[in-house]
Amino acid sequence: MKNELKLISGAMVMLALSTSALVVIPYLQVHDVKPSPGLKPYTSAELRGREVYIASGCVYCHSQQPRPKEMAPDFARGWGRATVAGDYAYDDPHLLGTSRTGPDLMNIGVRQPSEDWQLGHLYQPRAYVPGSTMPAFPFLFERKARADKEDRVLELPPSAAPAGQVVVARPEALDLVRYLQSLNRSTPVLAAPADPAASGATR
Amino acid sequence: MNTVAILLSAFVLSFVALLVFIWSQRTGLFDRSSRGAEVIFAPGEIGRIEEPAATAAGRGALQRTRDAAQGGATGHHDSDELRERARADASTGPVVFFFFCCAIVWLLVASAAGLTASIKLHEPDWLVQQAWLTFGRIRTIHLNAVAYGWAPMAGLGVALFIIPRLLKTPLIGARYAFAGGVLWNAALIAGLGSIGAGVSDGLEWLEIPWQIGTLFALGGALIALPLVFTLVNRRVDHLYVSVWYMACALFWIPVLFIVAKVPGVHRGVEQATMNWWFGHNVLGLFYTPLALASVYYFLPKIIGRPIQSYNLSLLGFWGLAFFYGQVGGHHLIGGPVPHWMITLSIVQSMMMIIPVAAFTVNQYQTLQGHLGALRDSPTLRFIGVGGLMYTASSIQGSLEALRSVNVITHFTHYTVAHAHLGLYGFVSFVFFGAMYFTMPRVTAREWPYPWMISLHFWLVSTGFATYFISLSIGGWLQGEAMLDAARPFMDSVAVTLPYLQGRSIGGAFMVLGHLVFALHFVLLVTNFGPQRDKPALFRRFSSRELVS
């Protein structure tokens, strides 16, 4: 090969093809998709909690994309129906995730709505789920000798409660739990048509 | 829009385009001679080995292996041309040295962060008091230190060394590369700091905030400038295959990065497809071509024999450029994305077997009869293993894209093991080898302790084998447990624990190997150890040394 112009232009055409297939056409297909029925924009507390979720890297162990029933038993585990593009209409950045070191969280707000459970579980996961490998997040909480009037005090199992102290939630922990409680994609959507080739944004 | 029509037309169009491009670049495609492959040798130099990382005895043995297989150099080599190469080497020495120093620092940072993250996966209550040490952040620091620190610094350093040699032209404007390198590393420090502090764009492989990303773009452009200047002012007519890979990688990466990072465009599901278009292409269209270019240069140079089939390398290159760009969608199989896109990605993942086979056959044929050289050449040992791992990881990746395999391996540690086979077993091994070759040319001094090179090799090889085998088994069992509705989810966690511990042990060996490598590097540049008679940094080369 002798001509660098041919080389580079050829290479850029190849990249343009890949960009159109994986970025441009999906953009045209789904960027203005309608939110799923019943889906509301996140509140500001939920959005702050979403930032904590991102900052803590929850996405590296938890997906937010239950697979279809015919593919995997995600529904049977209580993780919810397969999601559609409209379920993510308010998600920026997306948090689909690619790892399930922990369970899928797309419907954790339905499965585990209790604020007490969520807060305590963040403080010490192994007090609630024996054998869990989720890290504890003590830096989202504060230990005090006595709680103030407006403090959110955790109801911890005796095994996890520090002796002679109370554990109170910092605002980040409360926001994060608001976000987790908001994760709910359980409202019915139009099922995917039988022919998968014809689905996509339209389903 | 009718998606079937889009898919069909895109496929037909792209396939025709591929054929047209190969045809337009075909000069000598069906020519059985491979004069193009000889461009890396000076006239009369074929048959003469070059391996600065080996000891004198090793070089003698290498040359004997070569002579036994094919006969030695035929004529007197052209000393003008070797002086040219020495000038090219001298023009790149300081800047290559700077890039390699950065690469090694980031290698150590990434190693420490990676090992910490690995241990945290089976010791979840270890080091939990500090937010920046939590798994989700330290893991991300590991990934970014590799993706934007070690791999590009080493790869670009090798490119800066090889390209002037291949173009037989001294590097023009090395100071731009210096400035770019400084900017790039400043950006990376800021980026890792912000991840540690919890400021992140939230996309895998793209966590560093886009504001800092502009510094990367600027730094990258400055690094590429001297290479473009040198390309335009080259004195050689034919562009060797390594130049194709490296030049294209340098043009691809800014497009990838800018499209991915431009704020306010991507959201929701479309952002997920863009995310994996980037995540896979940064491997396939940046690190992979840089590493393949290194293999295509160093392997024939060390054994003193041109690439067996130059035409196969043409097929390998354009096949990679075409197919690899479209495979990223296989990260979203079963996800809420358009089905045609996933099918397209699976098809192209399988098609990747074509360029991989072209590369593998070519390397095997070139090495045939010279396998003894693996014993004597430290560079070749790393690069040989790296090349083999390229084949292995690519075939594994193609198979993982199949729905029947993916349904098990998706969402598990198996994918992590696969990613390391590519970026460590292949790319990092090749860069280790390339650095062993290059540094003696930069410092004009031999590696002081050859046993440390062997120790490095065996530590990282056994460590990585332990890492990969352990994590692959653990990931597979995890996937099977998750797919069995009768077993509780916690089974899929418990089953991985012994394998995660195995991975940490393997990882610890890899870290040890990196420490040995870094120490040896420091000993070389500070002029410690035996052979102190030879001068240290940045001395000009004489052609006598280059021939030795």
From TrEMBL, chain A:
SUPFAM superfamilies: Cytochrome c. Signal peptide: none annotated. It comes from the Bacteria. InterPro entries: Cyt_c-like_dom, Cyt_c-like_dom_sf, Cyt_c_oxidase_monohaem-su/FixO. Residues 44-184 form the Cytochrome c domain. The keyword Transcription regulation does not apply. It comes from Quisquiliibacterium transsilvanicum. The keyword NAD does not apply. One of its GO terms (molecular function) is heme binding. This is Cytochrome c oxidase cbb3-type subunit 2. Keywords: Heme, Iron, Metal-binding. Pfam families: FixO. Transmembrane segments: none annotated.
TrEMBL record, chain B:
InterPro entries: Cyt_c_oxase-like_su1_dom, Cyt_c_oxase-like_su1_sf, Cyt_C_Oxase_1. Gene3D superfamilies: Cytochrome c oxidase-like, subunit I domain. The keyword Acetylation does not apply. The keyword Metal-binding does not apply. GO terms for cellular component: membrane. The chain crosses the membrane at residues 6-24, 95-121, 141-164, 176-196, 208-232, 239-260, 280-299, 311-333, 339-361, 382-399, 419-439, 451-477, 505-525. PROSITE patterns: COX1. This is Cytochrome c oxidase cbb3-type subunit 1.
